[in-house]
Amino acid sequence: MNVTRRLTVGCEFVHQSATAVPAVFQVEPLSDQKVDVIDERWSLEPDGPTHAYTDLYGNPCRRLMIPTGRSVINYQATVIAPDAVEDVDEEVPELTPDQLPDEALIYTLPSRFCLPDVLGAEAWNRFGTTPPGYHRVQAICDYVHDHLRFEYGASTALTTAADVHNSGYGVCRDFTHLAVSFCRALNIPARYVFGYLPEIDIPPRDLPMDFAAWMEVYLGDRWWTFDPRNNEKRKGRVLIGRGRDASDVAMATTFGSPLLESMTVISEEAVEG
């Protein structure tokens, strides 16, 4: 019998805007994962229409208008997730570039925030002699986890992997950008992932709940989950989006400048009742 956990995930955005602003939100769970959405709902105050579509990476997106004045945009879902941490196979090999599937090649290239060309010498100096495969990717995660200190406000929306490597500070997206960059520099396909990550079967942390970022790395014949920020196996990951880096999977893209008054994220085990 498959054991599962029932989770509540979602978020709320409160804006003040001088004009109506078109926006795209990316906060709904991906269908391509071992998670079942059994109930979900959007709530907009004031009420307004929304339009769902799928982007070029297969991520669910929703278009809407942020109205003039104060508005509250809320999304909430109940999902069923496996009561298990992500898969591990320490014997899974790397593939040489000529062996990679066509669709994985894009994830070996530089992108807006992931800079394998800039960090190439650093990557080969640090990890070039590490045995290839799962252990090499884990060595990258170990280094990034130890090298960076998690600190809100230490990076900006313009901070690249090279910037954060030099500063030594960042948030989860920065940890992921740096690890992805090192993997790509070694010709290992790596893609940026973000989603909901509840605190299940771990000691509680004195930090407000937020969206989380991690990465998927192509080894053997599939993608494997690695988390350089937490550097531990976790239960309850609910994927929202995958892409080259954070610019491909922004939780909110606005075509204007509304003031974000607050953002609240929910990711927790559902209360039965």
Topology:
Elements: E1 4-17, E2 21-25, E3 36-45, E4 50-54, E5 60-66, E6 69-82, H1 120-127, H2 134-147, E7 149-150, H3 161-167, E8 169-170, H4 172-185, E9 190-196, E10 212-219, E11 222-226, E12 238-243, E13 252-254, E14 259-269
Parallel strand pairs: 7-8
Antiparallel strand pairs: 1-6, 1-14, 2-5, 2-13, 3-6, 4-5, 9-10, 9-12, 10-11
Estimated helix fraction: 10-25%
Low-confidence stretches: none
Average pLDDT rating: 96
**Fraction in beta strands:** 35-45%
Compute the number of structural domains: 2
Descriptive overview:
- This protein is of the alpha+beta class and 273 residues long.
- The protein has two domains: 4-83 and 251-269, Immunoglobulin-like, CATH 2.60.40.2250; 97-248, C8orf32 fold, CATH 3.10.620.
- The chain is built from four helices and 14 strands.
- The chain has helices spanning 120-127, 134-147, 161-167, 172-185; strands at residues 4-17, 21-25, 36-45, 50-54, 60-66, 69-82, 149-150, 169-170, 190-196, 212-219, 222-226, 238-243, 252-254, 259-269.
- The strands form four sheets. The chain has a four-stranded antiparallel β-sheet with strand order 3-6-1-14, with no helix packed on it. Strands 4-5-2-13 form a four-stranded antiparallel β-sheet, with no helix packed on it.
- 36% of the residues are buried.
Describe the structure concisely for a colleague.
With 273 residues, the protein is α+β, with helices and mostly antiparallel strands. The chain has 4 helices and 14 strands. The protein folds into 2 domains: 4-83 and 251-269, Immunoglobulin-like (Sandwich); 97-248, C8orf32 fold (Roll), CATH 3.10.620.30.
